[in-house]
Amino acid sequence: MIYDEDKIYATPSNRIEEFRFDNKVAGVFDDMIRRSVPGYSQIISTIGDIAAKYITSNSNIYDLGCSLGAATISIRRNITNSGCKIISVDNSPSMIERCNENISAYKSQTDVELICADICDIEIANASMVVLNFTLQFLAPEQRLALLKKIFNGLNSGGVLVLSEKLYFEDEVIQEFIDNEHLDFKRANGYSELEISQKRTALENVMRTDTLDTHRKRVQDAGFQHFNIWFQCFNFASMVAIK
Ligand SMILES: C[S@@+](CC[C@H](N)C(=O)[O-])C[C@H]1O[C@@H](n2cnc3c(N)ncnc32)[C@H](O)[C@@H]1O
Ligand SMILES: O=C(O)C(=O)C[C@]1(C(=O)O)C=C[C@@H](O)C=C1
């Protein structure tokens, strides 16, 4: 995937619009997420590793909020089982269009079905793996438990959910400490103070983050008995739940 450099918030604007996964964002998204999310590459490659261990033959794999298909491609490369299908879903037509191009660039025995839809509206069935890689935080908080319940019900016994999210910390001192480390990560990746602050404003009402405790409780309320965080760098984490 080769995409343009993210310059979306580089020029001052009087009115910052709410962040949307539109054509402009889709065109720079690979650069944006790599420069904004510490550990992103590690998480993508580990998703492939988890796929190799947990996917079973003749099952479905869901990549919910697939964007450009990074997790889908990592999973697909690691499937050795037959009769599997990856179902990759995003409600941004621009993301789906680019995802289709990216997926078509790789040959594989595993089919990918790309669906442009709200992940709250799709059916989940016969799943051995479900991925929510930085997607749940964009759903309205009141929709999150229902989605996790649907995932739990659609997973086969022994199936795995990978849930990656930006975390929020209730301890204000810790929140500030970790947030500052993340800001330094963005600065080190070439984002200016203006870009950082304008993007923060754009994301304010769109991306609502939870604490690790909230995630744990919600995942358990959805039915999962096995849950833990397996990766954390600053305020970005990836968690796993196994049915
Ligand atoms: C941060 S990106 C996910 C990154 C991607 N999973 C990856 O690993 O590169 C969030 C994605 O979720 C999609 N999204 C947000 N809310 C959604 C919803 N309700 N239904 C479907 N897709 C959604 C957005 O369009 C966006 O592409
Ligand atoms: O918190 C930030 O500053 C971010 O940019 C995070 C984040 C995310 O976690 O998804 C937000 C929007 C983009 O999708 C890329 C990264």
UniProtKB/TrEMBL annotation:
One of its GO terms (molecular function) is S-adenosyl-L-methionine binding. It catalyses: prephenate + S-adenosyl-L-methionine = carboxy-S-adenosyl-L-methionine + 3-phenylpyruvate + H2O. One of its GO terms (biological process) is tRNA wobble uridine modification. SUPFAM superfamilies: S-adenosyl-L-methionine-dependent methyltransferases. InterPro entries: CmoA (IPR005271), Methyltransf_25 (IPR041698), SAM-dependent_MTases_sf (IPR029063). It comes from the Bacteria. Residues 61-159 form the Methyltransferase domain. Its EC number is 2.1.3.-. S-adenosyl-L-methionine binds at residues 40, 65-67, 90-91, 118-119, 133, 200. It holds the Pfam family Methyltransf_25. Keywords: S-adenosyl-L-methionine, Transferase. It is an enzyme of class 2 (transferase). Catalyzes the conversion of S-adenosyl-L-methionine (SAM) to carboxy-S-adenosyl-L-methionine (Cx-SAM). Belongs to the class I-like SAM-binding methyltransferase superfamily. Cx-SAM synthase family. HAMAP family: Cx_SAM_synthase. Homodimer. This is Carboxy-S-adenosyl-L-methionine synthase. It comes from Parashewanella curva. The lineage of its organism: Bacteria, Pseudomonadati, Pseudomonadota, Gammaproteobacteria, Alteromonadales.
